Amino acid sequence: MPLFQPCDLRKDPNTGYAASSRVTTNPVSTTWGQGPTDFSTVNASIGRCGGSPGCDNGTVGESYADIMERMTADGALPIPAHVNVAPAGMLTTRSGQPLAAMIKNPDLHAIGITPSAPDAQDQQAVRAGTGIFRRTHPLTTVHADDVMGPRQLRDVGSSCWFKVSTPSLKSLKLAVRTPETRVSLTDPAVAARPAIKQVSWVGGYLDGVTLPISNDLTAIIGGRGAGKSTVIESIRYALDIDAISRQMKTDHKNIVDNVLHAGTIIRVEVETVTPTVQRFTVEREVPHPPVVLDADGLQTKLSPVDAIGSVEIFGQHELAELAGDPPSVAELVRRFEGSGGEDAELARTLQKLRQNREDLKRAEDGKVELENELARAGRLEEQVRHYETTDVPAKLAGQQRLTQDQAIFKEGKDRVAGARRSHTNFMQAQQVLDLAAPIDGIEGAPQAPRLQRVATAVATLNAKLTELGAQASRAFTSAEAEINSAQQEWETATADELAGYGKVLRELNELGLEPGKYVATKAELTQLQAAKPRLAAQVQQIQNLLAQRDGLLGELRQHEIRRTEQLHTAVRAANEATAGVVVVRPVPTTDRRRILEVIRGHVTGQRTQITAAVNALDFSPRALAAAIRSGGDALADFDIRGAQAAGLMSAGEALARELEELSVDLAVEVLLQIDGHSGLRTMDQLSKGQRATALLLLLLGASDAPLIIDQPEDDLDNNFIYKGIVRNLRTLKGKRQVIASTHNANVPVLGDAELIVALESDGVHGRPAEGGIGSLDDSTIRALAENLLEGGPAAFNARHHLYGF
Question: Residue 298 burial by CB count (10 A; 0-12/13-18/19+): exposed, middle or buried?
């Protein structure tokens, strides 16, 4: 049996994996390692096994169980090598119960296979741990072929990958105990994704502290008051991310005001992968806004979200609060489909509808005002007829012609003034002013000639509109001057006639015929008759606006259908991601506050019937709008009658139009599988902790954005922390960055955190403990985890004893 020879481990700084590229093996066992282990002890242990160089297979003198026990006791990591290579491989010489006894040996953690050799009879069952080969803990498979020269390193079986913080035997021992997250037979692929790389503080509770952050799972541990929540809320503050729940908003402000304090500087180094890998530093001094610095430390115009994209942060108890808000959960589920957040197209359509509604109101109010004015024409005509039996009309016939002339001058001026106002508003609209702004990014572009055509077209249009605007302005001035000139000439030409009629008026007054009243009434009537053609134009404008509204409502409906389809797609993805543990399904939201607020703005008094109708499961605001237009019988179908129905009908078209712009959004109902027998339970049937568990399971699979959670176990059931959360955390390795503060051992230990940060406090400041930044394969980190999370070895062993494990 050859003496132990250490392997060569090459560490990849991006993945944390180290590749074993030189392993010396033998048919009985293989020991790997490099570091402070006393290998003379290991070599002596090999000698004590009873073998000698060149001895026949199976004549080592000691049993397999004794060899495994002795080698483990002496600090070695025994790995049966070439197990599928005949004639000496362990899987080729034994089968059935004898092989099962060897496989289930408590000191066996890994076996070495040769991929170029055919599978042995029980190889698949052994690797899968099924049937008689079922083990309490998984068996690690490694590639451990002999490497006799550099060329053999190209062979598939010559190397495998371990995720370790240091290339040591102790690190390898931990790695083979958690193969799912730390051992890979091939070069592990890591998905490109945005990540937080480091956080540091100048001033405040964590003054002078710099914390590295892992690309995968970072666990922040420590006693009460050590600064775990301060780290989480500092990142939230630096990245300018608002808390969602009301209580979390208050808690966040308290930490910023009372723990960070004014003048504290927080720096968060981030890495983005789109469109290329870039590093930025988000720097924020309390209480000022954040700034984003590039890799050279120069300030940019970017916002934090531009630098790293979306980051999801949830403070203490925030998940439990959100779990009771179905619309918020629906937005969370939409992230599975990639449509979470504000829908810009929908927002634009709603804005157009609001503008259309306001334009319609102005046009209809103008039409009503004009109709009311024209309605006075009949009364004025009747008053004029009273004078027809007197000499007043005949003697003032010429005067009435002059009055009609004056009405024409007034109407002409009014129309020109209105047109000028509209023209000025158009020319000062931001969209028109934007035409004069230069278009950047053309110079030096590969398709610059074609891009320049765009800039030229915009510039030409701007020049043309400017020219037309100037022409229009001159035309308005010319029209106004022409009307004023005509009026001046008219006044000169009719001056004598007007003076003569003054004498006539005096004579008629002496006779008691009140010619002044007749003149005023006739003048008012003439002006109304001159304005009458405007009514037809206003009617046409209203018809055009109504047609535009119909189109916008159809557009709104298409947006809502699209969002509904997106939600269904996201629901399917969410259900698939949680493998049936959490089931979500679309339901109408029960939050109808916005609809009730709109109605309250139009209807006073009792609204109990209206509220009940709005809160009905199948309520549609557009159906209610149609009922308001139809009248009492239609409202009765909503069980709205009497004074409340009258109130809705009195609000009329104004309320109907506002209602038809609203909709009952889809929320999602969340159901959680408690165990394999009790079936699914709704949120109402779950405890606060179970609700938070369901939401966190959804969160973990929703996107690849960094996820930061402050002590999630505070609201989670312990059973689900391991069965649900920890298992999901392990599957996210290489896919998503997770940062969690915790005092529950399941998260960092069983979740196999790539980085553990242990914080402590002196009562004034928080800081990392001595040696408190590292991985679980570091003995110092394991000791800190034992003390902080388990209460120390004595407490853990006491529990172990009392539980009878």
Answer: exposed
CA 60, 112, 774 angle in degrees (round to 5)?
115
Q: How many residues does the chain have?
A: 805
Counts for the chain of helices (H) and strands (E), in that order: 30, 22
Q: What is the mean pLDDT of the chain?
A: 81
- State whether residue 18 is helix, strand or coil: strand
533 and 548 share one domain: no
Q: Which residues contact 390 (CB under 8 A, 6 or more apart)?
A: 513
Q: φ, ψ for residue 162 (rounded to 5)?
A: -125, 135
- The verdict on 132 and 220 lying in the same domain is no
- Identify the three-state secondary structure at position 241: coil
Residue 190 maps to a domain: no
Give the CA distances from residue 69 to residues 75, 77, 766, in Å, rounded to whole numbers and listed in that order. Answer: 10, 10, 44
Closest residue by Cα to residue 314 from 244, 370, 411? 244
Q: Are residues 401 and 436 in the same domain?
A: yes
Q: What is the DSSP letter of 464?
A: H
Per-residue pLDDT at 399 exceeds 70: no
**Residues with Cβ < 8 Å from 350, sequence gap 6 or more?**
556, 661
Going 25 to 28 to 34 to 38, the CA torsion angle's sign is negative
Q: Give the CATH number, domain containing residue 750.
A: 3.40.50.300
> Is position 674 within any domain?
no
State which of 668, 697, 730 marks the end of a domain: 668
Measure the CA dihedral 171/176/180/183, to 10°: 70
Q: Are strands 265-272 and 17-20 parallel, antiparallel or unpaired?
A: unpaired
Interacting residues of 65 by C-beta distance below 8 A, sequence separation 6+: 105
| 32 and 174 co-located in one domain | yes
**What are 314's two structure tokens?**
């949830």
What does the pLDDT average to over 751-766?
90
Express each pLDDT in 770-793 by its tens digit.
989 988 888 888 888 888 777 766
**Strand 195-202 to 78-79 pairing:** unpaired
What residue spans of 428-532 are helical by DSSP H? Answer: 430-433, 448-493, 495-510, 515-531
pLDDT per residue as tens digits for the range 514-525: 555 656 666 666
Cα separation of 612 and 589, whole Å? 15
Q: What is the DSSP string of 556-578?
A: HHHHHHHHHHHHHHHHHHHHHHT
395 & 256 share domain: no
Q: What is the pLDDT of residues 72-111, one digit of tens each?
A: 888 888 888 889 998 888 999 888 999 999 999 999 999 9
Question: Quick one: pLDDT band at residue 379, thresholds 50, 70, 90?
Answer: low
Least confident of 10-19, 191-200, 266-275, 708-717: 10-19
Q: What is the pLDDT of residues 5-37, one digit of tens each?
A: 233 344 343 444 444 433 333 333 444 444 445
Residues 358/594, Cβ–Cβ less than 8 Å: no
DSSP class of residue 299 equals B
Average pLDDT estimate for 282-309: 92
The answer on 561 and 483 residing in a single domain is no
**Is residue 371 assigned to a domain?**
yes
Residue 344, pLDDT above cutoff 60: yes
The parent domain of residue 595 ranges over 544-668
| SS3 (DSSP) at 337 | coil
Task: Please compute, for residue 599, the number of CA atoms within 13 A of its CA located in the half-sphere on the CB side.
Answer: 27
In this structure, the number of other CB atoms found within 10 A of the CB of residue 562 comes to 14
**Which of 432 and 718 is assigned the larger pLDDT?**
432
User: How many CB atoms are closer than 10 A to CB 302?
Assistant: 17
Q: Residue 738: which H helix or E strand, with range?
A: strand 738-741
Q: How many domains does the chain have?
A: 4
What does DSSP say about strands 278-285 and 265-272: parallel, antiparallel, or unpaired? Answer: antiparallel
The tokens for 780 are 């110092």
Q: Tell me, yes or no, whether 360 lies in a domain.
A: yes
Task: Choose one of 486, 504, 537: the last residue of a domain.
Answer: 537
R_g over Cα of the chain: 41
E strand residue ranges, 595-686 = 666-673, 680-682
Question: Same domain, yes or no, for 664 and 723?
Answer: no
